[in-house]
Amino acid sequence: MNIVCLDLEGVLVPEIWIAFSKESGIPELSRTTRDEPDYGKLMKWRIGILKEHGLGLKEIQDTIAKIEPLEGAKEFLDKLRAITQVIIISDTFTQFATPLMEKLGWPTIFCNSLEVADSGEITGFKMRIENSKLTTVKALQSIGYETIASGDSYNDLAMIQASKAGFLFRSTDKIKADYPELPAFESYDDLFEAIKKAL
Length: 199
Description:
By secondary structure, the chain is α/β, with parallel strands linked by helices.
């Protein structure tokens, strides 16, 4: 039994924080897990910047409403789901992901949740579980699944390395250079063929 575990941002949809950084005109918010491997540190820093600028969940959701999946992402996902089980494992939040899941045809996603005050201010975040991507892959393996994983950032490396097959997708030159043993792909067709072969 195989199950494919995919990252969301940078793999199927554009990076939400980069889009919001452009929309809000706050360049610091364009930092992602491609730049900062420590997700908790990154999120606390982002929440501090939002507070400083008086921005909350509504402003981010307004930006997300304009985001479309990456070109070819839905077709890739549909094709993959026709031949195997697929779960999206993301460090994003339910409050961000839901409108994007609708545009992708409602695939299964495991993600985290934001703590939001009545005023709409983001006050914190709740991680579903520690090291959520690796922990989820190990849990799936413990119930009899063999995992195949793909992602683009530092926080995807553990689940990629722990899987029977793992692939970088549209990653950075630095990550590709640091992990030359991981096959790296730029097109959905190539990634699909690599996953199909690994099934």
